[in-house]
Amino acid sequence: DASKEGYDHFLIKEIYEQPRVLREVISIKHNNYVINLPLEGSLSLEELKNINKIYITACGTAFHAGEAGKYAIENLAKIPVISEIASEFRYKNMFVDDKSLVVFVSQSGETADTLAALRKAKAIGAKTLAITNVVGSSISREADKVVYCYAGPEISVASTKAYTTQVISLYFLAMDIALKLKEITQYQVKDIIQNMEKIPSQIEEILKHKDEFKKIANSIKDAKSIFYTGRSLDYITAKEGALKLKEISYIHTEAFPSGELKHGSIALIEEGTPVISVATQSSILEKTISNNQELLARGATVISIAEEKNKFIKDSSDVIIEIPDTIDLLTPLLAVIPEQLIAYYASVLLGNDVDKPRNLAKSVTVE
Ligand code: G6P
Question: How far apart are CA 321 and CA 276, in angstroms?
């Protein structure tokens, strides 16, 4: 796994590995649609009944996966979840006790802030659960419970396959909790997993459009600033897209919740400012469309990421990136793929060190 296997960079190799890796991780986490989280990574009904508060904490891309996990736990298990950046969480008054569950998401399992937050939460008495990719890592050893992501080694500093496998792992955790608390049925679990099983081949479909993403990367690579917008789960995907692009292209990017645009950020829009609008959540699509129209009216170039079934979004976009249809919960796994490829091609076209961007490290083990 530590060779580029004919690809120009580890990043593009790892983007292309996602269909295979996701197929594997999905198949490991269920047996004939019965969730298969090993004892070390699941909470018993008794443990769950004792929990009245859930926190999720992480850094960087892992934090965005954590936020998708928060959405899944809140929507499936109906438990409120607080998500906090680890470098903030570790210095806060942690209102946790033996009735709290704190989930730590970390590809490497070694990130200093995440590890420090784990040690502090554990010392106060919280139950701790790690979502990590590295077996035997500090976080995997020190947390009470551990769920592995099975992404295989990720070499490129910018995280891609670790992110999508973290989201899958968190979704299985959310389904497991929801099912045990009888908030969802085994029938609903089967339906979600069946939709999940289509994701790897749907990613393969998206990957076939690489030339389209290269063209978009070329059209935005000289922009002063690029904005990402979205609501709800789409806002999380927007944040991950903005991070991916800024870390390897060095272009200033920012993600805004669509509804907040008019409270300040829309002042930044000039003629031709590129805005990537993540527009997948069906219950709020109308709102997204009206936000796109506001952006277009101020001269933005709106590039929408939308499901094939929602072709009408074309009317409120300059460019539309179509992703295959899925259920709302799973769109982050598809919408992130064009974002990863646009970031990759922008970085290549700008002549940057794609796998080792300036000033960044794969694993930040110092504060
Ligand atoms: C670094 C990496 C990011 C990663 C973050 C958290 O900043 O460059 O890609 O998301 O650390 O790393 P972890 O190993 O804890 O997921």
Answer: 10
Q: What is the CA radius of gyration of the chain?
A: 20
List average pLDDT for each run of 10 residues in the chain, which is 367 residues long.
87 98 98 94 95 96 98 97 96 92 98 97 96 97 97 96 98 98 98 98 98 98 97 98 98 96 92 97 94 96 98 95 98 98 98 95 88
Query: Among 115, 362, 366, which residue has the most ligand 1 atoms within 8 Å of its CB, making it the best to mutate?
Result: 362
Run of H or E residues at 102: strand 100-106
Does the model's pTM come out above 0.95?
A: yes
Pair 242, 253: CB distance under 8 Å = yes
Ligand 1 atom 5, closest CA = 60
- Answer yes or no: 362 catalytic: yes
- Most ligand 1 atoms within 8 A of CB, residue of 64, 110, 111 to mutate: 111
Q: Which amino acid is at 305?
A: I
Q: Write down the residue that tokens 């091609």 correspond to.
A: 345
Handedness of CA 326, 330, 332, 333 (dihedral sign): negative
Q: Tokens 């802030």 correspond to what residue?
A: 113
The tokens of 80 are what? 């409120």
Euclidean distance between CA atoms 239 and 168, whole angstroms: 18
Q: 7: phi > 0 → left, psi -120 to 50 → alpha, else beta; which?
A: beta
